[in-house]
Amino acid sequence: MKIAQMARSLNRPGGGVVIHSGGILPVAALFAAVLLWGGSFAAMRLSVQAMSPWSVMWLRMAIALAVILPFAGRLKIDAYRRGDWKLIGPMVLFQPCFYFLLESNALCYTTSSQAGVISAFVPILVAVGAWAILAEPLGRRTLAGLFLSVAGVAILSLSGRPGAAAANPLLGNVLELGAMACAAVNIIMVKRLCERYSPWLLTAFQVAAGTLFFSPGLVLLWRQPGVVWTVPLIFSIVFLGALVTLGAFGLYNWAMSRIPASRASMFINLVPVTAVAIGWMVMGESLSGVQCVAAAAVVVGVGISQKGSRQA
Question: What local confidence, expressed as pLDDT, does residue 4 receive?
Fold first, then answer.
């Protein structure tokens, strides 16, 4: 029944959806988005070794746009009201444009461990923003889960061994914090716009804006010699574009149209956990005892926050 309701939401006037307080499908969508995001690290690593990061990001956006274009006729914009551009414009600028731009540059100056610690602040920023802007409640259990998951991500990130020294940690960490702020603002804006717009329409706006914003990557791809289109590289690019850029963002936006933004943002803390787990299972990377405890803390924190959000 809920799957049918989700499908009918694309044909509903304005493309909007009815906001629900919970259910198993939004949680399943969030877990799927987290798994896709967690698996994107290995694919991204392989891709940037063969071409410029700007080219990789443009290809991701272009593939996602090509996949969603055949369904453009079902993504109605009848719900548009005068002044909505003041929300839609910043939404697409903050993510994917500014977010990917800041994060890609941040990792040139700081270590992945320090960047991972800063990324754990997204749920805190979203929870506070949703409380201030969307009037979503902040219960004690929710706050406890938030801080526990942040601590888990911090320990998980710090216990890792970065492969290269940080060239300018202060600058890199400031850029990473800016990227996380962009992600938090985007989540709140998507939550507000999902009241009247289809989450898949908002996702289409994002990938279209990203394709235009990262268009210099097409020029770099054209000028860059020696790009070997191997099967693993093609698979990685298609995976990043169709499943991660479109699938993960679409599933996450749809889930946010059904549950509070602060609750949905908690699942972001599972991304580094899934990345470590996939690296351990697929790439043979070791998982220390400290990292296992930290991963468990993140999962427990998400569970506490979920229970606290339902009670609120």
Answer: 39
DSSP letters for 200-228: HHHHHHHHHHHHHHTTHHHHHHHH-----
Between the alpha carbon of residue 150 and those of residues 69, 133, 153, 209, 287, the distances in Å are: 38, 22, 5, 31, 19
- Degrees to nearest 5, angle at CA 295 with 277 and 117: 100
Q: What is the pTM of this model?
A: 0.71
Q: Which of 64, 70, 129 is nearest to 94 (CA)?
A: 129
Q: Which of 200, 308, 310 is nearest to 254 (CA)?
A: 200
Q: Kindly tell me if the per-residue pLDDT of 166 is higher than 70.
A: no
Helix axes 112-119, 169-193, angle to 10 degrees: 30
**How far apart, in whole angstroms, are the C-alpha atoms of residue 117 and residue 176?**
10
Taking residue 111's Cβ as centre, other Cβ atoms within 10 Å add up to 22
Q: Are 17 and 257 in contact (CB under 8 A)?
A: yes
Enumerate the H helices of 69-139 as residue ranges.
85-92, 99-106, 112-119, 122-133
pLDDT at 243: 93
User: Which pair of structure tokens corresponds to residue 139?
Assistant: 């219960």
Helix axes 24-48, 271-282, angle to 10 degrees: 60
Question: Are the beta carbons of 213 and 114 closer than 8 angstroms?
Answer: no
- For residue 152, CA distances in Å to 121, 146, 147, 290, 298 come to 12, 10, 9, 10, 5
Q: Helix crossing, 140-158 with 122-133: angle to 10°? A: 150
CA-based Rg of the chain, rounded to a whole angstrom? 19
